[in-house]
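Co-fold these.
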Amino acid sequence: MSALLEVDGLTKRFGGLVAVKDIGFSIKGGEILGLIGPNGSGKSTVMKCIMGIEKPNAGTVKLEGINVAGWPTHRIARQGVGIVFQHSRPLQRQTILEHIKLALLPDNLLMLFTDHNVSRRAEEIAARVGLAKVMHRLPRTLPFADLRRLELAKAIARNPKVVLIDEPFAGLTKAEVADFSNLIGSFRAEGHAVLLVDHNVKSVAALVDRALAMYLGEYVADGTAEEVMRNETVRAVYLGGKIETAARPEREGKGRPPLLDVRNVGVLYGKAQALDDVSIHVGEGEFVSVVGLNGAGKTTLFNAISGLVPSSGAVTWKGEAIGGMTPAKIARMGIVQCPETRELFGDMSVRENLDLGGQHLPVAETQRQLQWLFELFPILHSRQGQVARTLSGGEQQMLAIARALMMKPKLLILDEPTLGLAPVILEQLSKALEKLRQTTDITVLLGEQNVTFALPHADRVYVLEHAHIVWEGDPARFAEEAGTGYL
Amino acid sequence: MIRSRTFQLVVPALLVLALLPFGVGGYILGLLIPAFYMAVFAMSWDLLFGFAGEVNFGPSFLIGIGAYTAALLNHYYATPIPLCLAAGAFAAVIAGVVLAVPALRLTGPYFGLVTLVAVLMLQNILVLFAGITGGEIGLDLPDVLAISDTTNYYYALVFMTISGAILFGLSRSPVGLILQASGQNAVEAAALGFNVAKHKLAAFCISAFFSGLAGAMLIFYMGTVSVGTVVDIAVGVNVIIAAVLGGRRTIIGAAFGAIFLIGAGELLRPLGQLSTFVVSAVALVVILFFPGGFMGRLLQTGGRE
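Predicted complex below.
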């Protein structure tokens, strides 16, 4: 049987950033391919290029031999591609059944009355995905898993030849994962070609026929799930090579009440439990790393500390409860977050970005601080006049950290600083962090999915998995106790 | 259908309105007639904002094109009223397409800004060519719809009812569903195979048709056309307030909001200049604290909690 979907030489650039570089694969009817890669590897972009949501710069996307690359999304959809989005944003006033009917409607302006066949078919689909009991309810009254079921139902309704599924199991419980695996398996049984996009091989290994791993937009490996998991490069990408740790002498601050104390914190995003009963503490002068795969809840944890998302539980800063304070007030108390998205002022120069960070400092102090930062990140010194938007990803990250340091934080929260950075840049960043740690008594809370980057600097490590803290301990013990099962 | 909340609210209300001329004098009728036309403006606007998800800051562009096309034909060529009305509605649709085709390619607030600029340009042109259009003073029309208040009242009521029924029916049809999906999440709608631009453009044309037709009918009721009554930004702002006040995504709510707005303005007339302030304040409170509008909760259909 020939391939239903054939992707060849697919390339997508965003400005100077090459998000996808020369990716190719094919999927036959009745086959499931897993597209695997860490955050920022370009796998979602590949999916968007197939669906026509992004237009590829080069390459072909052939659907039963017809090249659809560059077509508008609705034509690709009608050609036989369906997508199951990770985040469902259903219409608020329509019932579940109406959503399924919507997916069954043809693209026609003159359809003023609902066809009875459409209603009957919609009910059948609702029953198949397990929504029969709730089909007359509004989406907002339903739990998260049911909304994901609705997304699958819509894909079934379109009956596409090729189904693209973005992170099928994110935010689901074990029982629900089994349920969804069966539904996705039924696509295969019916002869559809399925592309599963996910962060790690493990979660989809049981389901996929083959897997293809990507990193930084490029092909890394492909084969069966086991072959991909055994691949040296894949292991390096996820686990890093050899994990090095550099413990530093115990600080005097230990034993005192912790600077930051997070107790039993929980966060809900709509129906999804993003953080569940998480407790961590950070002592003065300590360097603490929180490692976890993308979607584990790291950013949510940091946002809960910074007051950016409402949370249950208690967050205490120097013995004072800060839960419920505004983000601005929390920042003024000395907790400065350097977000994963960097949030630089893109149209301002490097120097202006830094000056803004040091707004509240006296002039002489600003100068001293700048001097120190330029020693820490020499590249920024030579780039002072350059507009921040035009910096490379690594330079932008350094600027983001430098700007946060300009505010003289008591606690610096670094969220995924390695996101989308090349290995060379990682090394520079790693050196700067080590220098920061050895020469100052700054307190740092680092969130990372890149273990190699997170461990060397850490005094203590937490592992966050599916909204829970599953391990806490010394970085030296990480490899043997928590390292396996991380791939 | 008989059991639906909308039906139970709208039918008695229409019955009361239909019997009104037997009980009240010309003053009340004279107040309600422009309110009914305003109701059509607001309902057409809600189809765009509530369903297609596009904020049209220039509803008076479409209204004004319809009104002035009809007025100029009638004033200079003595074209019969039915032809003027058809021409007005047609011109509004054409102008709507010319405006919407490039504007709908923009996203975010830019569509709204384009529509706003369109109104200002129309207003400018009308004032610049005062020799033809009558400028700010306006034009007198040789013909009027009817002399009698009661007849005018029924014209307006029937027109509002039919327009409302069509717009409401459309919003509840499968096409309305596709339109709502396009408005709320264009990417997802396209991924389901719907040509989002086509559906939005169709909605814009329908909105333009009813706005233009209502604008043309309004001036034949008043016997005169002027920038201040059908084109000015303030007219458009009132339409928007009426629709939001009445309840977004309900169509019927927009009509209610329009009648309320004009009625309240009149009731508060003894307050002088203050009346506008009080009505605006009420509108502000509703928008801030009940974003669903008057009818938002009341008319919510479909689905059990």
